[in-house]
Amino acid sequence: VSLNDEEIYEAISEILPKLGAETSSTVLGAGSDDLEAGRNYLQTLVEEGWMLPTWPQKYGGRNSTPEEASQISRTLGLFEGADLYPYGVGLSLVGP
Q1: How far is Cα 87 from Cα 42, in angstroms, rounded to an integer?
Q2: What are phi and psi of 18, to 5 degrees?
Q3: Nearest to 70 by CA among 1, 10, 3
Q4: Would you list the DSSP string of the chain?
Q5: pLDDT digit string (tens) for 67-93?
Q6: Quick one: which of 72, 62, 71, 76 has its CA closest to 1?
Q7: Which GO terms describe its molecular function (predicted)?
Q8: CA end-to-end span of the chain, whole Å?
Q9: pTM for this prediction
């Protein structure tokens, strides 16, 4: 299902908190040993295919076009997220 920019923002805003000035995020795993935050963040995004939107729906994606996936990525950057460094390799190197 193809969504426009506003629909993507609205859908993601329903599941993720907006970045605030007090948000302090770690980078590349530095500063936090909290793996549970990453797991929870991934689970939240995976439930509706937001984490890997170009993947087929039957494999947990959204069947998104590259353009839509790019907009999803930009939109996700507007919201709080967990440091996914411990999980990044698997997300980048495996898939259908």
Answers
A1: 9
A2: -70, 145
A3: 3
A4: ----HHHHHHHHHTTSPBP-TT----BTTBT---HHHHHHHHHHHHTTT-SSTTS-GGGTS----HHHHHHHHHHHTTB-----GGGHHHHHH---
A5: 999 999 999 989 888 877 777 666 666
A6: 62
A7: flavin adenine dinucleotide binding; oxidoreductase activity, acting on the CH-CH group of donors
A8: 19
A9: 0.76
